Amino acid sequence: GQDGTTSGKDAKKILPAYVATNVVKPDVPAKNGSAIGFTGKLDLSTLKTSVPKQLGKGGKVTVMAPFWGSPPKQSNAYYTAMNDLIGVDVVWQNQDGNTYDQKLGAVLASSDVPDVVVVPGWNMGGKIPSAIISKFADLGPYLSGDKVKEYPNLAAIPTDAWRRSIFGGKLRGLPMPAPSAPSMVPLYRQDIFEKEGYEVPKSCDEFMALAKEITNAKAKRWACLDMKWTAFQAFGVLSGSEKPLGWNLVDGKLVYRIETEEFLEALEWSRKLFAAGVVHPDSKMGKNAPDPGPKFAAGEFLIYPNNISQWWSRTAEQATQNPDFKIWGMDVWGHDGGDPILWADQPAGIFAFISKKASESVIRDVLAVANVTAAPYGTKEYMMTNYGVEGTHYTVKDGVPVKSDKGNNEVLNAYVMVASPAATIAHPDFPEVAKGQVEWQQRMGAFAKKSSFWGMQITEPARYTNLSNDFEQLEDDIVRGRKKISDMQQAVSDWKSKGGDKLRDWYQKLLDENGSAAS
Predict the structure, then answer these.
(1) Which CATH superfamily is domain 4-180+346-426 in?
(2) At what angle do helices 380-387 and 360-373 cross, to 10 degrees?
(3) Confidence band (pLDDT; 50, 70, 90) for 1?
(4) pLDDT at position 457, please?
(5) Identical fold, 4-180+346-426 and 184-343+453-514
(6) Is the keyword Repeat assigned to this protein (predicted)?
(7) Do β-strands 400-403 and 222-224 pair in parallel, antiparallel, or remain unpaired?
């Protein structure tokens, strides 16, 4: 069948060989599933070359990818310079990232599929996984085993990221590696904490007490935004964003995250924060709440959970007009004050696929693109991919690359989507933030376990794909007091009878055949 997974001996046969890159040495090596970190200044004269000879053969390649913002014209200076460097004429079909899943569904259902299609993990619902298997090429003949050595930057991508790129028994994806250490951070205003003498909490009770102390609605100050994501971490709830990670073997029985006591306890604690009035009113809107940046900067709330990338982006956007502003990441606590039980993130979450109809020369040209975009930090190819052309898109002042307006408009979220180097954090403008981010990942990574299906790319049978779709909305309704915990218990019971128990049996069979990734 088309569903299931490929692991163990079968995966070994098709995975690319791993050859670590020694082009550049990180300042902070990876540990406990963290990214590697760079904390030094940038010296353009010492940049290394990781692609000594151009591998592109001058062909034309169309790439469809999600884009957030307004895409630049095809003939812009960045695209031209990248294509000249690679030796391939890449033509971008950028689509609005916010409505990408609809566009993806339509394109994959048609007979006219671009040469390369980027698919983020969060867009892999419904029929998309089976379309990936039927529409995209097997890259094994080009990359399995030692064949990958023709593309040294692809050979340096960690094996775990490649294992996630196996769909329907074949190596189909070019991955964007990610740290397996947790990525969801309770971010807070360290400057205000220091000024007011607030202590970072170490349990859920301490958090509640602190939240009440901070909150003064008359003065327009609340403690936090919706803390549901942090609650899931504090109570040790299985990761929910990637379906197979929501399953785990507990005392010999497969359990889905929504069936656990911890899940209900996390929702209940999050609900109590809303009920206590310590959550900023914007959070009542749920998913459609406005961007938290401006009100966080204004001090209207002091804590919110979000992706670790916001640690740097918030720092950067406030640096000039708000010099006292300091955002930092809290260590996640166990709900009762003990060590937390965290769950490892997937080692890759965004993939580029090559059309089954592509000729060998097109496939080789795409791999030439990927070999440049996967160049490590500290190389000329990385600088070109991530910053563009020196003088046109950025200048370097005191070892810090500063993008011009042209750089900000043209050099964003395109080429990096084709393939990326091992997870890397580098902010020459704020090296202390890069260090803080990597060290946070390392501390939290020490508490992170791998659930039974970690790192496997699993295609669920189509009949189950929409089974869990309504849970996120229900979680949010309960946390906001619009629904009760008993509504969730009822929904879980319905889920079991509508197919949840059968899906469990399906996963159990997978486990019996493939073994567990858990550790």
Answers:
(1) Periplasmic binding protein-like II (3.40.190.10)
(2) 90
(3) very low
(4) 82
(5) yes
(6) no
(7) unpaired
